[in-house]
Specification:
By secondary structure, this protein is of the alpha/beta class. It has 3 domains: 189 residues, Class I glutamine amidotransferase (GATase) domain (Rossmann fold, 3-Layer(aba) Sandwich); 189 residues, Rossmann fold; 102 residues, GMP Synthetase, Chain A, domain 3. 31% of the residues lie in helices and 24% in strands. It has a 9-stranded mixed β-sheet with strand order 2-1-3-4-9-8-7-5-6, with helices on both faces. The chain has a 5-stranded parallel β-sheet with strand order 12-11-10-13-14, sandwiched between helices. α10 links the parallel β13 and β14. α5 packs across α11 and α6 packs across α11. The radius of gyration is 25 Å and the shape is globular.
Length: 524
């Protein structure tokens, strides 16, 4: 969680992480409810940390392990006798059951995705959770199950393939559930967390964007002191919020560097310069590095290599300019938590690596500049709220996410100048149509991509052999899970016709209807 110097008297919900991709979602949901939360790896848990009077509740996360891998799991059974309310989710539910004398075994029928659970007994935890008939749709992701209840536990709810989907020991305030209440797919999942936090743990609201802003500014001042910071500014939401936050924290000691990689959207560089140099009066250095990036990416098709090349080049450029400015010791980036958990495990747990983000896994191992990443434990929606608190305009704060590697990961295969120009035009038409039809702010992220495949088409009486343009638009709350936006036929026809009729090089348009998971939002 946030490594900031919080008031020692601030109460919190502590989350023990066992490596789930969704652990930070739990913390995010709790912060949404106005209560401070922290995440700690199961490998680093100390009884003294948990027994503190400031810990109001404990949540055990899910994870990729099973309870029989005892050599990889660290669980101190003394935690169960501290009198602190405990909620186990998925793997956390299984480990609680095992440690308390129940049994866990391989499921006969695995459950992945939506499942319907039925209410068996009343519980404070499930107040307003079930529908009038006693059912609720939840998100399952498990291949093991609790097969025998621990002593003094009762069943709250069951599913077709999981008899003990929800269990509790009401006297000890210990609860377990096989599904994930933190993901948006679980209907009313937030109500379970609300009931746990307020009705069971008796927590009070103590967290807000305003408080977050002041704590982050304080943290940056403590870390940076009187040194200068060079900030990687792209003009996107994340780097814009970082730049504004740093300006409030260190003032004139901030120098922003905007690198034109040649992989930006159409007219991007002009927008950034006008916004930050002219409107915000921030010390901005513009670097035209198009030739350098495209030369290094020549004939490179592997997505991981692309990301690492771009990450290395960014740092080289920042270090080069840092030498020209005295007393620069830090490099600031707009890294977010989804970047970290897809690139590596941030808590030391067994979270799987999905891909290297150019500003995380793509960075060189040896860097002369120290990193400052004040947003790295936040999700996009939290960053947007922080941006509004910092008085950034909505046109910046509500802008769709744009990846650091830019169009490099929206052109699968080899990158060429011709492909970049084709894609810039297609993406520009697509985004402008979204705005024209008042759809832009209803969508989390939308973009066009150029696939490395040519197909035969016909225009007039002539044969064409040109590229396929892929359009993607997704809805999401946090970027961790996402679903495709369901456009009407008329809009899709309008966009398709405009792209094909106005851009030489594209003769076919397709729409991506894959959710996340199983796909990621970007193609590479």
């Amino acid at each position: 969680m946030l490594k900031i110097n919080l008031d020692k008297n601030l109460t919190k919900i502590l989350i023990i992480d066992y490596g789930s991709q969704f652990t930070q979602l739990i913390a995010r949901r709790i912060r949404e409810l106005g209560v401070y939360s922290e995440i700690i790896s199961h490998k680093r848990v100390k009884l003294s940390n948990i027994s503190s009077k400031h810990v109001r509740g404990l949540i055990l996360s899910g994870g990729p392990l099973n309870v029989y891998q005892s050599n990889k799991i660290k669980f101190d059974k003394r935690i169960l006798n501290l009198g602190i309310p405990i909620l186990g989710i998925c793997f956390g539910h299984q480990i609680l059951s095992k440690e308390l004398g129940g049994k866990v075994k391989k499921s006969k029928s695995r459950e992945f995705g939506l499942a319907k659970i039925k209410k068996k007994n009343k519980s404070v935890l499930t107040r307003d959770f079930f529908d009038k008939k006693g059912f609720c749709d939840v998100w399952m992701s498990h291949s093991d199950e609790v097969s025998k209840l621990p002593k003094n536990f009762v069943v709250i709810a069951s599913s077709k393939n999981s008899k003990f989907s929800m269990i509790e020991n009401p006297k000890k305030n210990i609860f377990g559930m096989q599904f994930h209440p933190e993901v948006t797919h679980t209907k009313n999942g937030k109500k379970i967390l609300r009931n746990f936090i307020f009705s069971i743990c008796k927590s009070k609201k103590n967290w807000s964007p305003k408080k977050l802003k002041s704590k982050l500014i304080y943290h940056v001042k403590e870390e940076v002191k009187k040194s200068k910071v060079i900030c990687a500014l792209s003009g996107g939401v994340d780097s814009s919020v970082v730049a504004k936050l740093l300006k409030e924290a260190i003032g004139k000691n901030l120098v922003c560097l905007f690198v034109n990689t040649g992989l930006l959207r159409k007219r991007e560089e002009k927008q950034v310069i006008n916004t930050f140099k002219k409107r915000f009066k921030i010390n901005l250095i513009y670097v035209d590095a198009k030739k350098i990036f495209l030369k290094k990416l020549k004939n490179i098709s592997d997505p991981e290599r692309k990301r690492k090349i771009i990450g290395n080049l960014f740092v080289q450029i920042f270090e080069k300019y840092a030498k020209k400015i005295k007393n620069i010791k830090f490099l600031a980036q707009g890294t977010l938590y989804p970047d970290l958990i897809e690139s590596k495990s941030v808590t030391g747990s067994q979270t799987s690596k999905i891909k290297s983000h150019h500003n995380v896994g793509g960075l060189p191992k040896k860097m002369k500049l120290k990193l400052v990443e004040p947003l790295k434990y936040l999700f996009k929606d939290e960053v947007r709220k922080l941006g509004l608190e910092l008085k950034l305009k909505k046109e910046i704060v509500l802008r769709h996410p744009f990846p650091g590697p830019g169009l490099a990961i929206r052109i699968p295969g080899v990158i060429t100048n011709k492909k970049i120009k084709i894609l810039q035009e297609a993406d520009f038409i697509y985004i402008e149509e979204l705005k024209k039809h008042n759809l832009y702010n209803k969508i989390w992220q939308a973009y066009a991509a150029l696939l490395p495949v040519k197909t035969v088409g016909v225009m007039g009486d002539n044969r064409t052999y040109e590229y396929i343009c892929l359009l993607r638009a997704i809805t999401s709350e946090d970027g961790m899970t996402a679903d495709f936006y369901n456009f009407n036929k008329k809009f899709m026809q309008t966009v398709t016709n405009k792209i094909i009729n106005n851009i030489q090089g594209i003769n076919r348009v397709v729409y991506d209807v894959t959710s996340k998971p199983p796909s990621t939002i970007e193609l590479e």
